[in-house]
Design brief:
The complex is a heterodimer.
Chain A (H helix, E strand, L loop, with lengths): L1 E10 L6 H21 L2 E6 L7 E6 L2 E6 L7 E11 L2 H15 L3 E5 L7
Antiparallel strand pairs in A: 1-5, 1-6, 2-5, 3-4
Chain B lengths: L1 H7 L2 H19 L7 H19 L3 H11 L14 H9 L6 H11 L5 H8 L3 H17 L12 H20 L9 H17 L4 H15 L1 H4 L19 H17 L5
Helix pairs in contact in B: 1-2, 1-3, 1-5, 2-3, 6-8, 6-9, 7-8, 9-10, 9-11, 10-11, 11-13
Classes of the chains: A alpha+beta, B mainly alpha.
């Protein structure tokens, strides 16, 4: 079994209506249940918008703190799934279902499962 | 290569094993190759891969080795493609890979084209092609893109890049960018794979159409080059040299497509 991150992207400059948001949540919840039933679900979570984000950076043995996310891009991380699958095809199939449910693009990334040397 | 990739589950490992086996063949065969040279290469390469994995100490390598040793000599085929090369082709043409990577990888691993030839066919620099192939192989391994024939439901979507690649392989043979004018081996290979694909998907008009196109173009090959290796234009070709059997087969396939009355993809 391989683990994959399904990272949900979101253009924060175009927020959805309250109604659409509710429908998305309901559809996403269904996908979660489906994943659980199939034994693929590991973890999932939705995130607050990037205004609530803080970046902590290492610098010369100490750290600095800045307001906001890493990149000043329109696309922000809106939420994510961690799933376990046989192969990329299975992960991509879940990503399709997830993207249709939440109406947002999803980046599929395999975990680095190489054993620590 | 395709068979070994299925057995070993990794393109890089298969490539190294095949190289090892050919090196051994050069030493051992001498004047008399074994009765089944292809089988000899596959068996030797598989054994060399096991040796290689034994020398590796990582846990992952040991797992791979255990899997390999406990695998039956001829793993059972699954899905509709019986040909390892076609299975490999669907993996190389996986939609999670970029179009250039799909084609470059297939031409390299299945068409046997050199990186330089692929670069010329695509009008991109050689290092770009090299880098795309390396990156694609790493992605196949690390992202877990399977060596599997797509299921019946996915097959139509997965087909387009495969057809594109077959067409390009044929094209490189039809008017070769390197050395001789024609590379008959590439044309034959493209036709062989197109035939296998048509057997697999007899109801896909695009597959039948491509096969018909390749056969009809191939039928004129004997007349396309003159005695001193120069190209002969269509109007001046000796039509008695055209291959009647291929023409008949191509026409029949075109008629099959026409009956469906569904031109274009």
């Amino acid at each position: 079994m391989k683990r994959y991150l399904l990272a949900v992207q979101f253009d924060e400059s175009h927020p959805e209506t309250e109604e659409e948001l509710r429908a998305q949540l309901a559809r996403t919840h269904k996908v979660n249940l489906e994943m659980e039933a199939a034994g693929s679900w590991v973890f999932a979570g939705g995130l607050m918008p990037s205004y609530a984000s803080t970046v902590v950076r290492p610098a010369n043995g100490t750290t600095t703190m800045t307001d906001g996310p890493f990149a000043e891009t329109k696309e922000q991380l809106a939420g994510f799934w961690v799933i376990q699958c046989e192969d990329a095809d299975q992960a991509l199939a879940w990503a399709r279902k997830g993207a249709l449910a939440c109406g947002r693009p999803i980046e599929v990334r395999p975990f680095n499962e190489l054993p620590a040397e | 290569m395709a068979t070994l990739t299925r057995m070993l589950g990794d393109i890089g490992l298969a490539e190294e094993a095949v190289q090892d086996a050919f090196a051994a063949a050069v030493q051992k065969w001498g004047e008399a190759p074994p009765p089944n040279p292809g089988g000899w290469i596959v068996t030797t390469a598989r054994n060399r891969a096991i040796d290689r994995l034994r020398r590796e100490s990582s846990r992952e390598a040991r797992h791979a080795q255990a899997l390999l040793l406990h695998q039956p000599a001829e793993p059972k085929e699954v899905g509709p493609v019986r040909d390892d090369q076609l299975r490999m082709m669907f993996t190389c043409c996986h939609p999670a890979l970029s179009p250039l990577a799909q084609t470059a990888l297939t031409l390299r691993l299945l068409g046997g084209l050199e990186v330089a030839e692929i670069a010329r066919a695509y009008l991109v620099p050689e290092p770009t092609v090299h880098q795309r192939i390396v990156r694609a192989k790493k992605k196949i391994r690390d992202a877990g893109i399977p060596y599997r024939v797509p299921g019946a439901a996915e097959l139509p979507d997965r087909l387009q890049p495969v057809l594109t690649v077959l067409y390009l392989v044929f094209n490189e043979g039809y008017a070769s960018t390197a050395g001789e004018l024609l590379r008959t081996d590439l044309c034959q290979e493209a036709i062989r794979l197109a035939r296998a694909l048509a057997d697999l998907m007899p109801d896909e008009p695009e597959v039948i159409g491509l096969l018909a196109l390749l056969l009809l173009v191939e039928s004129r090959r004997p007349a396309r080059v003159g005695p001193s290796g120069e190209l002969v234009v269509l109007a001046e070709q000796d039509r008695s040299l055209w291959d009647r059997a291929l023409i008949a087969e191509g026409h029949e396939l075109v008629r099959r497509c026409l009956r469906r009355n569904q031109p274009g993809p």
